[in-house]
């Protein structure tokens, strides 16, 4: 069995990552998935969260939101709506988005779209976590 696999992370705007990786963790719709070389084939929907992968024993993280992942024994392809490296994240904007989402969720307003506010909160938190190196 190979010790690495090809990893591609693509958004509608660009190819964010194209490398070989030793492992990757992705936010699946029903929880995080850990992928190692030789993993059984799988297609899954992505949720909001962070992708963590090891390349040459160095851990790297990306904040991602929505999309799909195709896992094959020797290749993982992630098609994400958004994927940001820590250096690309506007921390102040993410803090403001988190505060707005929290205010919506605690306002008591019955007109608030709770699912949308929760998505915004999770996305902002993932961006802040990746930017801070957590």
Describe the structure concisely:
With 134 residues, the protein is of the alpha+beta class. The protein contains 2 helices and 8 strands, in the order ββββββββαα.
CATH architecture tag of the largest domain: Sandwich
What ranges have pLDDT less than 50 throughout 5 or more consecutive residues?
none
CATH homologous superfamily designation of the largest domain: F0F1 ATP synthase delta/epsilon subunit, N-terminal
Instruction: Domain count, please report it.
Output: 2
Q: Which of globular, elongated, flat, extended, rod-shaped describes the shape?
A: elongated
CATH topology of the largest domain: ATP Synthase, domain 1
Give an account of the 3D structure.
This protein is of the alpha+beta class and 134 residues long. Helix content is 26%, strand content 46%. It has helices at 91-106, 114-132; strands at 5-10, 15-21, 23-28, 31-35, 42-46, 49-55, 58-72, 75-84. Helix 1 (91-106) packs antiparallel against helix 2. The chain is elongated and about 55 Å long. The chain starts with a strand and ends with a helix.
Features:
134 residues, alpha+beta, ATP Synthase, domain 1, Single alpha-helices involved in coiled-coils or other helix-helix interfaces, 2 domains, 8 strands, elongated
């Amino acid at each position: 069995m190979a010790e690495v696999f090809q990893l591609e992370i693509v958004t509608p705007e660009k190819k964010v990552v194209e490398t070989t990786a030793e492992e990757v963790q992705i936010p699946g719709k029903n929880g995080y998935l850990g992928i190692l070389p030789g993993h059984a084939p799988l297609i899954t929907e992505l949720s909001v969260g962070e992708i963590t992968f090891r390349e040459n024993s160095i851990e790297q993280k990306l904040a991602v939101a929505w999309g799909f992942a195709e896992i094959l024994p020797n290749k993982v392809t992630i098609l994400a709506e958004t994927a940001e490296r820590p250096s690309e994240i506007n921390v102040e904007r993410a803090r403001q988005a988190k505060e707005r989402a929290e205010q919506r969720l605690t306002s008591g307003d019955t007109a608030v779209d709770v699912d949308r506010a929760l998505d915004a909160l999770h996305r902002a938190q993932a961006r802040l976590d990746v930017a801070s190196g957590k």
